[in-house]
Specification:
Strand content of chain B: under 5%
Structural class of chain A: alpha+beta
Strand content of chain A: 5-15%
Number of domains of chain B: 1
Number of helices of chain B: 9
Number of strands of chain B: 0
Radius of gyration of chain B: 18 Å
Distance between the termini of chain A: 88 Å
Number of domains of chain A: 3
Distance between the termini of chain B: 13 Å
Oligomer: heterodimer
Largest sheet of chain B: none
CATH architecture of the largest domain in chain A: 2-Layer Sandwich
Number of strands of chain A: 12
Structural class of chain B: mainly alpha
Helix content of chain B: over 70%
Order of helices and strands of chain A: HHHHEHHEEHEEHHEEHEEHEEHEH
CATH topology of the largest domain in chain A: Alpha-Beta Plaits
Radius of gyration of chain A: 28 Å
Number of helices of chain A: 13
Shape of chain B: globular
Order of helices and strands of chain B: HHHHHHHHH
Shape of chain A: flat
CATH class of the largest domain in chain A: Alpha Beta
Chain lengths: 342, 202
């Protein structure tokens, strides 16, 4: 009776000993940082980093073939932890989101033909370059929506792809999916981008799109930081490194080409410290928004103020402040529409 | 010549007539799980061939020299699981040390195979009677049986992966998309493999 128990116990003991000896003999040194890195990474195995999952990415980090900010869904938080573990600098890591550079939907852009093929932008482009008169605009056939793993890009009611910056993780999957190269990445901290991609000349653009860029260069002149907007191929190119907020440029654009992801901007307000010097009046880009007599307290028209903040630095007694940005998240300001100042 | 014929009989039988997946219905989990892509299916199949061959060698020896000798054949299942699990662990460690390339390419499939019922199945079949000769499996016969069962496994997996890659692109009714159509396909393939039953090599 005891024989089978002894055999089984001996077999178990034998294999256990063999395995433990084997583990010592065939030990392969694995960098312990790989384990630590794996714990930090989100374990989503999404592959956005270009590696076959988080474990492979951690391996790449240790070998030096992957970048510390390579994990896109993890964002800045994970990048900082990774950088800490690897002992590298993570200062320049900025969160990016996708932006669709077109706002000429069904109401604005001229349609030259009816597209009746498969629901895919690439298919539409193959058939004499799509149904729109504009050869640069968004076709609205959901090729980018299909590749988004995070439900962050949708075709809006106007028939144009629109990115939800809250959901966008910056994985760049949609960038490659657009046959018209309309999507690119911009810093998440920036809220305004150019919603047009046409390289045609102004007169031609006017014929097919009411929100198309005519290349008038008014936005370039309106930018307060030099070099923040440059004209390339009849199209302003925005540089997000100068600290410019592009609010004035967006306001000055006669075709309303710019897209502001914040629906309700804070408004400037002048308090009782105002000495009535009038320095703020000439810097305001919106006519008749700051009014008042020299020597008396000036007022700002809250309906027309665009919240650009240009009047703040010129005010000697610091009587001007932007109201309405406190206590509200970005998302609330985007969705509540008209902002109530209380 | 006679040995060769008997080994050929065992091979044909293991690959086609008694195919592990499509006739014996063993190892269905990896059959469904890793047959989505041809490349992973091939990797899994080769890993199975490898483990089946090594497991056949060891389990035959243990069965013959220990279990039969002490007349405790009822311990087969538990001892075989013990042997296979330790064996796979050991093989994994050796591969990691001496052949990192092979270790990388087999990847996750090697530990996955540990609990694959097809491996235990081939070990159990090797303890029985060789249906072609009517006598118990010899050592060589059992190793050939193990290898060729693995080849049959690989064949079924590659066929399935090839079909599933095509199905991915086909227009399928919504409720049948994914696994349901794969099960239907597997059933039809099993019916097709039934055609081999009764085949005899003389």
């Amino acid at each position: 009776m005891s024989l089978p128990i002894i055999i089984l116990a001996l077999a178990g003991l034998f294999f256990g000993i063999v395995l433990s000896i084997g583990a010592k003999v065939f030990h392969v040194h694995v960098d312990e940082r790989i384990k630590q890195l794996e714990a930090v990474l989100p374990s989503a195995n999404c592959g956005a980093c270009g590696f076959a999952g988080c474990a492979a990415f951690a391996d790449g980090l240790v070998r030096g073939t992957a970048k510390a900010n390579g994990c896109l869904p993890g964002g800045a938080e994970v990048a900082h932890k990774v950088a800490q573990l690897l002992g590298v600098d993570a200062d320049h890591l900025e969160e990016m989101v996708a932006a669709v550079h077109c706002k000429g939907g069904d109401n604005e852009a001229t349609i030259r033909a009816k597209y009746d093929g498969i629901h895919d932008c690439h298919g539409a482009v193959l058939i004499s370059n799509g149904s729109k008169e504009c050869q640069y605009g968004c076709l609205g056939l959901s090729s980018c929506v299909a590749v988004c793993e995070f439900d962050a890009i949708h075709i809006n009611a106007n028939g144009i792809a629109e990115v939800d910056p809250e959901k966008c993780t910056g994985c760049t999957a949609c960038v490659a999916s657009c046959p018209r190269f309309l999507i690119d990445m911009m810093p998440k901290s920036q809220k305004i981008f150019l919603g047009c991609n046409t390289k045609d000349r102004g007169a031609k653009v006017k014929k097919y799109c009411s929100v198309g860029c005519t290349g008038c260069t008014l936005c370039v002149k309106a930018a307060s930081h030099p070099d923040s907007i440059k004209m390339v191929n009849n199209l302003p190119v925005l540089s997000f490194t100068t600290g410019e907020n592009f609010l004035t440029s967006a306001y000055k654009c006669p075709s309303d080409c710019f897209v502001d992801t914040v629906v309700a901007r804070p408004k400037a307000h002048i308090n009782v410290k105002c000495t009535g010097c009038g320095d703020c009046v000439p810097v305001c880009p919106v006519p008749n928004t700051i009014t008042g007599i020299i020597g008396g307290r000036h007022t700002i028209n809250k309906d027309t103020c665009i919240g650009c903040g240009l009047c703040l630095p010129v005010c000697e007694p610091s009587a001007i402040a932007l109201w309405g940005s406190l206590g509200y998240t970005d998302r609330e300001r985007r969705t509540t529409g008209r902002f109530e100042i209380t | 010549m006679e040995t060769f014929m008997s080994l050929l009989q065992i091979s044909i039988g293991a690959i086609f007539i008694q195919n592990f997946i499509l006739s014996r219905f063993l190892g269905l989990c990896p059959f469904m799980g890793v047959s989505k892509k041809l490349s992973t299916a091939t990797g899994m199949g080769i890993a199975v061939i490898f483990v089946m061959t090594v497991a056949s060698m060891f389990t035959w020896a243990i069965n013959h020299f220990i279990l039969e000798a002490y007349n405790v054949l009822y311990l087969q299942t538990i001892v075989f699981i013990l042997v296979i699990a330790s064996l796979v662990q050991m093989v994994e460690m050796i591969l990691h040390k001496y052949s990192p390339v092979l270790y990388e390419s087999l990847g996750v499939y090697l530990p996955l195979i540990t609990t694959n019922c097809a491996i235990l199945g081939v070990a159990m079949i090797n303890t029985g009677i060789n249906p072609y000769s009517g006598s118990p499996f010899t050592f060589v016969e059992s190793v050939v049986n193990g290898t060729m069962s693995g080849v049959g496994f690989l064949l079924a997996l590659i066929l399935m992966a090839g079909i599933r890659e095509k199905i991915e692109l086909a227009d399928i009714p919504k409720p049948l998309e994914g696994l349901p159509i794969a099960f239907i396909t597997a059933g039809l393939m099993a019916v097709a493999f039934l055609g081999f039953s009764g085949m005899q090599l003389r």
